[in-house]
Design a protein that fits this description.
The protein has about 675 residues and is an alpha/beta fold. It is built from 26 helices and 22 strands. A hairpin with a 7-residue loop joins strand 21 and strand 22 (about 640-645). It is elongated, with a radius of gyration of 31 Å.
Length: about 675
């Protein structure tokens, strides 16, 4: 008995998918005879199905596919069984496709319950020499759908119309329709019959990739699931299902607008965590477009304002090296430090474009997941959030102006999410509280059936710092000492026992990056009003009755004189005002704090400077930290409190990346034996 048959060819073996269309495909170490025949029939060109037939009969003889030009490579072993039987995550061994197909649908109420219709149909096709590749029929018998080659589609249609001429004239058959060009995507694996959820994972992957499935076919052996899709979507479909069954990583194309401190920190973080995300979550993040800000293009930027890849691997069938298909911090800084004319950068280039064309550089027809990060605080950028979502891009934003802009702009975002919410996500957690999970907690309360009555808190990190500095609570230093000791040095707090002037606190906040260089925007409560608008939208759409200006007009502003252009004059006025306010509060055993509130029942939104008792949570909230309280039906006696630091570029960038990870974990199937929820250790390792 032969120990094996080796077939020497020009490839390494049987691939998990066509490497020209799925760059991350790989050589399978072993497959069964049945799997190899299915893959060969559905487009794998390694060998013809009939070649394997003599070796597969009893007693079977192993087949080995080896590469003549790489004789040391072990190749693929084809025998009676494969690893798809034992490994749940690898229940599918590979995917293949057949292009240049046409789908023909014969439909009519006169077909229901009539014996012999299928016989006449397929007898006609046989007489015309039409080869049927795939058949699909619903149990209602109202239609029969089959696939054949493009060149035989018209022959098949003419033959059917001739055979069923009388039924068509009597409207018993209503249509004989051709859809073309089509492709058949086939999932193959011996482990599929014994693994639950295979079909669900297969079609969920196609749905997440926005693929229109035209027909479905599966035999009783369940070794093959086939779906017919449009040829224009076939490459994206192959990549999506290949990644869904963990045969490759899920590619995510990323664009970033706002290359400020947050944007640069995010770019660095995306680069640093790329390998961890690939190994832990099987997500491959590719930064493909960067835009400095949302300002209009200047004459000196005639080479373009968007940094893009010189050769986009995802758009060129992945022929590029993995390390060159993403823009890194080094690449970005090298390019922006020079001009296009003098740059020798081999990875990235300047490309003409603006806010409206940014999605074009992020989107790829062959990639299912495309994301834009908005790291700006610019109102003109927020105006494009709805447009980006409509184009099919997920938006993860730290910019609150999208949901706090004019009512027409907010309604546009709502309309896109209502229409396309299954395919795109608008993630705005970072717009409220930075890295604090304020929006997510509010969603959890509402979705679990709780009723939120009142929300208040310190929502401005700059005002939190300033008012703490001018009126620090007594005993803060002792509390910090206790935390440093009890945490074995993990806590390193900063305490301010000595108050300072308001103007000094503002300058410190500016130096720390907690507020704008011109502080009047923060002192006028513009930022706080925008944050409140985002929260109000989640609470029975209270934002419909408000806008930013209305909240500002009714709030306690520290900057009221619009004609005061001299910042030093402003400081003199406010220094005296706040000194008097601090002294007045101290007489009552209180300190002033910047407190925002939303009364859901009354429908009111307010921003006030409130005198709070020295032992109140708002009084002892550390500088540059925020604090939010939820008073709900279930939390009447003690409010649910979220407190912590929300400032800092690194913290904000981490929160933005965490949003992406949570989004993609809902898109990528978890490995068997692991829970789908991200553990604290997972997130700590990632961000």
């Amino acid at each position: 008995l032969s120990q094996g048959i080796t077939i020497w060819t020009d490839v390494n073996g049987v691939m998990s998918a066509d490497p020209r269309r799925v760059p991350s495909s790989y050589t399978l170490t072993e497959v069964s005879f049945n799997e190899a025949m299915e893959l060969a029939y559905f487009g794998a060109k390694v060998m013809h199905p009939k070649t394997m037939l003599p070796a597969s009969i009893t007693p079977p003889i192993p087949l080995y596919i080896r590469n003549t030009f790489q004789p040391s490579f072990p190749g693929t072993r084809i025998y009676t069984s494969s690893a798809t039987h034992s490994n749940r995550d690898k229940c599918v061994c590979g995917f293949s496709s057949i292009d240049s197909m046409a789908l023909i649908n014969v439909e009519g109420s006169g077909m229901v319950g009539i014996p012999g219709v299928a016989k006449r149909l397929f007898g006609t096709l046989e007489s015309k020499g039409v080869n049927v590749v795939l058949i699909s029929q619903a149990s209602s018998e109202h239609s029969i759908t089959f696939a054949t080659t493009l060149e035989m589609a018209e022959v098949a249609k003419e033959g059917i119309e001739e055979e069923f001429r009388r039924e068509i004239e009597n409207n018993h058959i209503s249509t004989v329709e051709i859809q073309k060009p089509c492709s058949i995507i086939a999932a193959v694996g011996d482990g599929m019959p014994t693994t639950t959820g295979v079909s669900g994972r297969f079609f969920t992957a196609l749905g997440d990739a926005k693929i229109s499935v035209l027909a479905i076919s599966q035999g009783s052996s369940a070794r093959n699931i086939s779906a017919v899709v449009y040829t224009s979507e076939s490459t994206r479909a192959l990549r999506a299902v290949h990644a869904a069954f963990r045969l490759s990583h899920t590619s995510v194309r990323v664009g970033v607008i706002g290359m400020n401190e947050v944007g640069l920190s995010l770019l660095k973080l995306l680069e640093e965590q790329r390998n961890k995300l690939r190994s832990r979550f099987e997500i491959d993040l590719m930064v493909v477009a960067l835009m400095k800000d949302g300002m209009e293009e200047k004459e000196e930027e005639e080479n373009g304002r968007i940094v893009t890849l010189k050769e986009d691997g995802e758009k060129h069938n992945g022929d590029l090296d993995w390390n060159t298909c993403s823009i890194t911090m080094e690449v970005y800084q090298s390019l922006t430090a020079s001009t296009e004319a003098t740059s020798d950068n081999t990875v990235a280039k300047f490309t003409p474009g603006d806010l409206s064309t940014l999605p074009q550089h992020v989107l790829s027809p062959d990639c299912a997941h495309n994301i834009i990060f908005d790291c700006t605080g610019e109102t003109n950028v927020g105006q494009y959030h709805a447009t980006w979502l409509k184009s099919g891009v997920h938006v993860i934003t730290a910019n609150s102006t999208g949901l706090s802009g004019p009512i027409k702009q907010r309604n546009a975002i709502d309309a896109v999410l209502n229409q396309h919410g299954r395919n795109v996500s608008y993630l705005r957690e970072v717009t409220v509280g930075g890295a604090l999970p304020v929006v997510r907690t509010l969603h959890d309360l509402l979705y679990s059936g709780d009723c939120v009555h009142f929300v208040d808190g310190i929502l401005s990190v700059s005002m939190s710092y300033i008012l703490y500095r001018i009126a620090p609570p007594p005993g803060a230093k002792a509390g910090n000492a206790f935390d440093e000791h009890s945490s074995n040095g993990a806590f390193q707090g900063v305490s301010f026992d000595t108050p300072c002037l308001f103007s000094e606190a503002v300058k410190e906040a500016v130096d720390l990056g907690l507020m704008e260089t011109d502080p009047r925007r923060d002192l006028s409560n513009e930022y706080t009003a925008r944050v409140l608008m985002v929260l109000a939208k989640e609470l029975d759409d209270l934002d419909k009755c408000y806008d930013v200006e209305k909240i500002q007009d009714s709030s306690d502003q520290l900057f009221l004189d619009d004609e005061c252009n001299d910042i030093n004059t402003l400081y003199t006025k406010v220094n005296a005002l706040m000194k008097e306010r601090v002294e007045s509060a101290a007489e009552k055993g209180c300190v002033p704090r910047h407190v925002s509130s939303i009364d859901v029942k009354a429908g009111t939104i307010e921003v006030k400077i409130v005198d709070v008792p020295l032992n109140h949570v708002f009084a002892i909230t550390p500088p540059s930290c925020e604090c939010v309280r939820f008073f709900t039906e279930r939390h009447r006696s003690y409010p649910l409190i979220i407190q912590g630091p929300s400032a800092g570029a690194d913290s904000t960038a981490s929160a933005l990346l965490a949003e992406l990870v949570n989004l993609m974990r809902n898109k990528v199937s978890p490995k068997s034996g692991t829970i789908s929820r991200t553990t604290s250790a997972d997130l700590a390792n990632v961000v």
